[in-house]
Design a protein that fits this description.
Blueprint: H1 2-19, E1 24-26, H2 32-49, H3 55-72, E2 76-78
Antiparallel strand pairs: 1-2
Length: about 80
């Protein structure tokens, strides 16, 4: 019974997330090339770290690592 409730809750969360405003990375004076270079470096660093775990928890940890890396490169996440 708890598993069914969890699945329904997850489905509702995904639907609501789809309705949210899209988030974009912004950095004053930066070009698309700057974004591509920084995001590549952050993704590469995140993938090479390899300590995030598995499943959804691992994906969330990797996403957070990526976000912190982008902020360290001067980017802000805005809607």
């Amino acid at each position: 019974m708890k598993r069914g409730t969890l699945l329904v809750g997850t489905a509702i969360a995904l639907v609501l997330a789809g309705c949210a405003h899209p988030m974009v990375w912004n950095k004053y004076g930066a070009t698309q090339t700057d974004y591509q270079q920084d995001s590549y470096v952050c993704e590469k660093d995140a993938r090479q770290s390899g300590y995030f775990g598995t499943g959804i928890a691992g994906a969330i940890n990797m996403r957070d690592f990526f976000k912190h890396c982008m902020v360290a490169h001067g980017w802000t996440l805005q809607s």
